[in-house]
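Cont'd.
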Amino acid sequence: MTAPLLEVRHLRVEFPTRRGTLLALDDISFDIAPGEILGVVGESGAGKSLTGAAIIGLLDPPGRIAGGEIHFEGRRIDQLGAEDMRRIRGRHIGAIFQDPLTSLNPLYTVGRQLIETITTHLPMNQQQARERAIELLEQTGIPAAAVRVDQYPHQFSGGMRQRVVIALALAAKPKLIVADEPTTALDVSIQAQIISLLKNLCKEQGAAVMLVTHDMGVIAETCDRVAVMYAGRIVEIGPVLDVIHRPAHPYTVGLMGSIPTMDEDRERLAQIDGSMPRLNQVPLGCAYNPRCPNAFERCRSERPDLIDAGATRVACWLHTETQERRS
Amino acid sequence: MSSPLVEVKDLAKIFDVSAPWLNRLVERKPRLYVHAVDGVSFTIERGKTLALVGESGCGKSTVARLLVGLYKPDRGVVSFDGVDIAATLATPAGRALRRRTQMIFQDPYASLNPRWKVQDIVGEPLLEHGMVNGSDDLRQRVVDLLESVGLSGADVGKFPHQFSGGQRQRISIARALATQPEFLVCDEPTSALDVSVQAQVLNIMKDLQRERGLTYLFISHNLAVVRHVADQVGVMYLGRVVELSEKGDLFDRPRHPYTRMLLDAIPDIHMTGRARTPVRGEVPNPLNPPSGCSFHPRCPHANTRCKTDTPEFIDLHGIKVACHAVQEGRI
């Protein structure tokens, strides 16, 4: 097996507040192999966007990395200064955000923004960069790219803007792209276009993707592996087919059951009672225990770590206990 | 067969989006109109759910607002239990009509007054319609309503910010149910919620429909949710309903090319690795809709007739569809 492109080890992110420190991400560990698409799912507030932000070094203050390590191509990047990180961002790690309107500067033409990115990271002059910009817009499926390159973001529709954002992210041929809810603000018909575009372009360039989304359908279609997050921790991580069809963590089971699907008729959806705890009220033991139908004594006092369970890795005492009994 | 509870005929709403008068004068700009809803007709039977689906800007929320009387129609009639809504709401009889239809809005963070306690939010419609005697009765009614949507009666003194998104949406449902309405218009009630919470809210809505015989108009852009809740489904595109049929027919045998396209575009968790054929193009600008069938620039079956003639909304074996290609038997 090749060395992973990105290694995250025991990542911990804290938000100091007046009423004490909130632990937003706790003991997050995962790898992304070159060219792999890793999906990150979870409900609002589970910490999925924060994980992406920590990797690209764009945590909003007062949030800070309080522990753990992030390695990119074998080099530790979580301790780099702002200037060094800026050089990695864009050149080696690209980012795509949810809202294509706020991630483009409304006062600059699309071309100027692309050219700026290209000349910052690649040894090209203005003319070459402009040609590259037009080529990128063409690759992302924008018709009449040579004309559109001189237009402003407001002259583009939502789907077209997101294509521009993808072109920007891919401009310097980064090896990793962190895409945070890239299709959430778009209509379904456009969503399909953007997802297949992202998938194809990354395959062509051999770029790995960390795809953060709450849409399990998008994950199923796009990703190789998926990490399920709950209350700041990864509760299950594994190949996408296994997680969807044979979920091992009770939270993943509940999450899958609550998604209305197109090919079966059910009178009621399986529901998870209650809601995710706030960060200052995360219960002792497993964070999911108050909502878990299978919770027992140990879940309420000790916190489970990720262990191998079949094809996936799960943080759940149910699986630990079965394994301990076996051995 | 009993008469339908809600009957909508040739409904239209036009918004004036012209530049201000001085700009029009100086810059010689013409007046501009958006035909947000253009000739929509449907009926909803008692105790049933009609879902309207479509992409942003197709006019589905405008239809919802027309049905509860928040907008006045520019053409066409909405009749509720045989009574014309637009004409009646201005008269004294409109009060009773308002009591019988209620609306649930999309964003539970924006639709609840942050300075009001839950008791005031849920109790307001009861007071407004004079349905309670004294404060003890009011409190008891509010507690009952909260319990009917799975909240605790002890929540009456709390403010909206003390609740999560799903709980807030339950408060909106409790408020809508306060006047014991027969018809609920739900405008994207779950699209601001996480899936596990969405499942809770959808289950509550279905339970309430069964217990109280409610009739729903359910607006959504999520076809999987629609498949779960609806009896009948109408697909909207640029202000028009392009296909309207029973849920089973629509999902198993979609007729209109736009419906087929939408169904094909949904990511499904059981379709891992499926290569989808993404749809071409985007929704056109409603200010300047294409001639003829407004879907023709994106349609794989469009011919010259589609570019000039607007297709009529015709009943074909129980499936109503507005498409030349389907009506001519080309597809």
